[in-house]
Amino acid sequence: MDGVVAHGVRRSFGPVEAVRGIDLTARPGEVTALVGPNGAGKTTLLLVLATLLVPDAGTVSVAGFDPVTQADEVRARMGWAPDVFGLYDNLTCREYLEFCGRAMKLAHYEARAAELLAQARLAEKADLPVHTLSRGQKQRLGLMRALVHSPSVLLLDEPASGLDPRSRVELRELLRLLAAQGCAVIVSSHLLADLEELADTVVFVDQGVTVGEHRLDALPAPALRTWRVRALTTPPLLKALKGTDHDQPTAAGVDVRLPSDEAAADLLAMLVGKGVRVVSCQPVGGQLEATYLELTQ
Amino acid sequence: MTLQGILTVAEQEFTIRIRAGRWRWLLGAWFGVLALVAALIRLATQTVNGGKALDKGVVVYGGLTLLVLGLALLVVPTLSAQSVNGDRERGTLATLQVTRLTAGDIALGKFAAAWGTSLVFLALSLPPVLYAMTQGGVPFGRVVVVTVVVSLLLGSVIAISLFLSSALRRTTTSGVLAYLVVFALTVGTTVTFVLALALSTEHYVQTVPGFCPDQPVTTPCPTETLTGQRARPDRVWWLLAPNPFVILADAAPQLPPETAQERQRRLALEQRGVNVSNLRDSDPLGGLGRAVRGAHKSPGSSTGSPVWPWGLGFDVLVGAGALWLTARRLRTPTRDLPLGQRVA
To answer: How far A39 CA lies from chain B's nearest CA (Å)?
Structure first.
């Protein structure tokens, strides 16, 4: 199968076992989110997929090829954007992308560079040195580098870090577009709210192992979810909430942990019934965040 | 590995290099120093022993060449000693490794860019060299050989420095080590040779025909036995062989002997009472070359044999090996990762 299939991947650095058995499947036409705490092994897994690290164990297939024995075939079809990367400061944006195109052995690298500059809204900066770019612009340029050879598999490590809200929205739209064109996109990110709108599948990793792989539209309901209730005046609310699992009140309201949507509806009815003047009652964080918090203790 | 790939990397490295530093100033200073030194040597040889000096070009060229080699050996480690680990630090290496460029493309491309830069320096030394040639006594063949030998020596040092940058994590460490390599090749080989020469000293017993002037010729004269200490440079000459200065001086073709025409001209001048010195006899390269060959001969023989093929061969082989190792260290995916080294 095209896309990415990883099974039982293990990789240690000296005594440190960074990845201790990650399974992951990323289908073409879908965005797969790789989610987990810092140090969970996400970056290491992406390095294995990006033909940079040999796994100690496990089977990996990227775009139908083995990244260890068929690295060149994988590289021709895979784009990788690391979380931290450098640009050649003295090159212009255009020169940088043209160089990347040549390194990818593209015949029409000049046309491709111009196309990508337009796509990244960097056409005006095309002939300025890279060091004049803002952080977000550099991030976009780095993403365009990964796209220079129109890969069918895209590996992005924290692509949204440092991006302003508008750029994040644009990144989301770009990735959706690439997926719609048949690309298998893997995104590792901590921005769960973003992922919720972007991903089709989410793979949770913790301490080097896969702890859950779910379709986003079929996330398992978490045992407890936090709801935030705000009323015109807090004391009657607190009085009514007596006996429930709730936190100290803040300016934003009172956080209450509830087992289900039904329980939330019941609570709201009870509060209204007791005459508490409720202004709002809503779940805190997305469902993805709730699942994440539950899976990665 | 393809020529296209190597050129892609080399061109890129070269562009960055040229835009990064104050190259115009550096190259200008380099040229200025060489031109100044050439002019000073020329002035110093205006009169020798109060008389006329012939073939002044020999000394100007010899001095200039040794200076070019010495200065270039100080410059070239900086061209490649931070090339690979610097890219790693800046986070530009991994993104290069996931392209379709091979490890060999990257290693050779980086080498080509650094070597090309060093050849620019060498090319800038040519105008003073041409000037030296106009001052007489410098055969064209010598200039060609010396230029080729210096480029090969610089290439070897650049390749070794490049390997250090691929093998060591910190750019400062590889930079310092690259200079230590240059130090070892120049001062180190000389000091080791001198020390080893002292150790090579042996006790010898030699039988020589006796000297008996009072005896009739028909009576055989008894032989005499001489004993003493002598150094055996023929056993340790190879310690000196990798020295770039030794290689350069020894490889430089010896100057042709004085022709009949030149002799006539000299004699005519001397008849007029002019004190004439031919500076061909003060050839810095030839002198050093003869001294080195003198060490590379067995005690019996009268002529030494060339040292430079061994030395240059050794240096170039080490350089080629260093390039090969560099490419190996750039190969991905990586199995073994040095402690603390980031992949990306």
So the answer is: 14
Q: What residues of chain A lie within 8 A of the CB of B90, using their CB?
A: 86
Q: Are B8 and A91 inside 8 Å of each other by CB?
A: no
pTM assigned to the model:
0.89
Selected for mutation to probe chain A from B3, B15, B16, B99 (highest A CB count within 10 Å) is: B99
Can you read off the two tokens belonging to residue A148? Answer: 């220079």
Q: A12: which chain B residues are within 8 Å (Cβ-Cβ)?
A: none
Whether A290 contacts A260, CB under 8 Å: no
Q: Are A50 and A67 within 8 A, CB to CB?
A: yes
Residue ranges making up the domain that contains A83:
4-217
Decide if B301 is inside a domain.
no
Burial class of residue A220 (count of CB atoms within 10 Å of its CB; 0-12, 13-18, 19+):
exposed
Chain A and chain B share a number of CB contacts under 8 A equal to: 84
The CATH number that applies at residue A21 is 3.40.50.300
In this structure, is residue B193 part of a structural domain?
Answer: no
Residues of chain A with pLDDT under 50: none
Residue of chain A whose alpha carbon sits nearest to that of B98: A75
Number of structural domains in chain B: 1
Whether A207 and A291 share a structural domain: no
> Cβ of A52 and B339 within 8 Å?
no
B45 in a structural domain:
yes
SS3 at position B5:
helix
Smallest CA–CA distance from B334 into chain A, residue? A53
Residue A229 and residue A204 in one domain: no
CATH number of the domain encompassing residue A286: 3.30.70.100
Which pLDDT value is given to residue B55?
86
Mean pLDDT for all residues in chain B? 90
Residue B243 contacts residue B185 (beta carbons within 8 Å): yes
Give the number of other CB atoms < 10 A from CB of residue B256.
11
Q: What is the domain extent for residue B103?
A: 3-188+243-295+306-330
Residue of A nearest to B97 (CA): A52
Q: What is the dihedral of CA B32, B38, B39, B44, to 10 degrees?
A: 140
Same domain as A269, residue A177: no
- pLDDT (tens digit per residue) in B194-214: 999 999 888 888 888 777 777
Q: Please report whether residue B145 resides in a domain.
A: yes
Last residue of a domain, one of A174, A197, A217: A217
> Which residues in B lie closer than 8 A to residue A54 (C-beta atoms)?
333-335
Residue A249 CA to residue A252 CA, distance in Å, equals 8
Among residues A217, A240, A261, the one where a domain terminates is A217
Contact between A212 and A290 (Cβ < 8 Å): no
**Separation in Å, CA B245 to CA B117, B119, B184, B187, B253:** 21, 18, 12, 10, 14
Same-domain status, A233 and A212: no
Contacts of B335 in chain A (CB under 8 A): 54
